[in-house]
Amino acid sequence: MGTYEKWGWSKDEILMAFRTDPWCMMKSEEKIDTVMDYLVNKMGFETSVVAKNSLLISLSMEKRIIPRCVVFEYCLKKGLVTGWVCLELVVCRL
């Protein structure tokens, strides 16, 4: 829980994440930090958005998260995507 608290998650967000995806609590601190760093610092998503989509912590960075975020950034640059986009749509459902 300390790793999630380090990223600014409240106790309620941690419990919500556990209810959504209990396996997110089994991930290593390194895995959590890697995913959070990429999604929050590089992609600019809020930590609370990641908390609401805790399944993201369980996904592969190399096979799922990074490739889909690269496509998302490309679409943003080309003007194919405008306005607010749900993180879950970008990474989980594309």
Automatic annotation (TrEMBL):
GO process annotations (BP): DNA-templated transcription termination
Keyword Transcription attributed: yes
Entry keyword set: Transcription, Transcription regulation, Transcription termination, Transit peptide
InterPro entries, per the entry: MTERF, MTERF_sf
GO molecular function, one term: nucleic acid binding
A Pfam entry, by short name: mTERF
Family: Belongs to the mTERF family.
Record PANTHER family: CGI-12 PROTEIN-RELATED (PTHR13068), TRANSCRIPTION TERMINATION FACTOR MTERF15, MITOCHONDRIAL-LIKE (PTHR13068:SF166)
Protein name: Putative mitochodrial transcription termination factor
Organism: Helianthus annuus
